[in-house]
Amino acid sequence: MIPQSNISCRNCPNVNCFIKSCSPDWIQLISNKKSESKYKKGQHIFIASKPIFGIYFIKTGKIKISSDGWNGKEQIVRLATDGHILGHRGYGKETYPISAAALDESVICFVENHIIYETFMENPGFTYIMMMFYAQELRAVEARIKDMAQMTTTEKVASALLYLKEVFGYTNGDVLNVNISRKEIAALAGISEEQTVRSLTDLENKKLIAKMKRNIRILNEEMLQKTISLYR
Amino acid sequence: MIPQSNISCRNCPNVNCFIKSCSPDWIQLISNKKSESKYKKGQHIFIASKPIFGIYFIKTGKIKISSDGWNGKEQIVRLATDGHILGHRGYGKETYPISAAALDESVICFVENHIIYETFMENPGFTYIMMMFYAQELRAVEARIKDMAQMTTTEKVASALLYLKEVFGYTNGDVLNVNISRKEIAALAGISEEQTVRSLTDLENKKLIAKMKRNIRILNEEMLQKTISLYR
DNA sequence: CGTGCTTTTGAATAGTATCAAGGCCGGTGG
DNA sequence: CCACCGGCCTTGATACTATTCAAAAGCACG
Fold it and tell me: How far is the CA of A213 from the C1' of C7 (A)?
């Protein structure tokens, strides 16, 4: 990672950043204390089992949060982009192997725990926004629990694609705005790489998507939603 | 549900209740505004797709939060007990079918959204505690995503039993403190009822648990942990 | 223009859901 | 008090879905 010049949060173009919910003098204080870094595609922001001493605020970029198994089998548990946060720890006691890596070049601001804590106590609006973010994410992850348990592989892939669209959006109208490997789609859907390929072919034959090398074009989002809506 | 007499939160025996983190006058204010109800085993606290206008604080009891599928196939996404909360909604826009029901007689306090919101703004410690709770739960559910994707059925059952123990604890030393049907264990593990039974028999043959009608005795928690720890 | 990684397809295998049936209570009403 | 009924639990057999293993084709990069 490459440390960046510390521009003030006040002038930061990321309008979604939670820090913006603090009072002006706290924004300035965090500005001075934060450290901003650039991560290249594939680089890790933090890795499993190492304690985390603060919160990472994503300025720009695309991040995957994954849980790595014994055999190295990756499971992506969450995706994050501009304005989202990483590195939360419950009460800090328990550790379980979670890691975060950049899916694309990303710029991330890190703020240490004790500064964050003081900020929480003095900026209820900030704490409130953070709480709502967690609550929102909790609901999203809860929904995925059901997906994992009850969907067929093709439905899981459809669901994964829609999740990618929800978080990263489109470029050129209907092309998923993320460069991701089949193996990573598999890790997101929670199935094998081979089945992922077969399911993608399925969906292509049904004219719901089009494969363009690594890029995926969503031809019929509505039908894709319908494919999985039986479970929602 | 049966409305209860409103004792003050100050005298409430539930020491884990988040409301206790508010300032004394706010505790009193919430005391006056809250409504307390008793739910019998099997009763619903709220049901899918109906908007929720506040937060439920569990005083005592055992709750399952589930997502109901198209075919009525239940998936339990989370368990909750004394001191936990229910009914959070992200930013209130999206709805997805989640419902909560009592696994055992439960007493729950309900506080309306606008009161909660004011409380958040005036009690940073309270908001902070709530935020940490959500962050903690988020991490727990993330871990379960991986379980669902990569474990075998028997491992899923072992994991479900340990989760039940973590939330509800033991009675008589080593008996799970919850009266739950096989079908519900299946809904928690995300597998079929039949496989659940077979897996329980498996675990019993391996001397890790003992079945006593509906009650389950954990004979070797350490080995049970080891069974699933390959994935953690 | 190799070399290695990713993607794709095929075939065999294993694991799980589903279907079917019998047994085991617990509760209810005669 | 007993017999019946219905839901829950259990076991077996079968079908199916998805994983795994193996191999070839495509692509990116030096």
Answer: 9
Residue of least CA–C1' distance to C25:
B213
Integer Cα distance of B164 and B214 in angstroms: 14
Chain A residue at shortest CA distance from B97: A232
Judge whether residue A41 contacts strand C, using its CB and a 7 Å cut-off: no
CB contact B90 to A (< 8 Å): yes
What sign results for the dihedral spanned by CA atoms B189, B195, B196, B201?
A: negative
pLDDT recorded at residue B178: 95
Side chain identity, residue A232 = R
In A43-146, DSSP assigns E strands to 44-46, 54-68, 74-81, 85-86, 98-112
Q: What is the pLDDT of residue B84?
A: 96
**DSSP three-state, residue B127:** helix
SS3 assignment, position A136: helix
The interface residues of chain A toward chain B in range 48-67, judged by CB-CB distance below 8 A, are 65, 67
A78 contact B CB<8A = yes
Q: What digits encode the pLDDT tens for the residues B57-113?
A: 999 999 999 987 666 789 999 999 999 999 876 555 556 678 899 999 999 999 999
B145 phi, psi to nearest 5 deg: -55, -45
pTM of the entire structure?
A: 0.91
Query: Identity (one letter) of the amino acid at B53?
Result: F
Beta strand pairing call for B35-39 and B85-86: unpaired
Q: Which amino acid appears at position B14 of this protein? A: N
Q: Does B7 touch chain A (CB under 8 A)?
A: no
Residues 6+ apart with CB under 8 A from A127: A120, B120, B124, B127, B128, B131
- Tell me whether residues B69 and A98 touch, CB distance under 8 A: no
Chain B interface includes A129 (CB < 8 A): no
Type of residue numbered A32: N
Tokens representing A199 are 């399911």
Cβ separation B90–A150 shorter than 8 A:
no
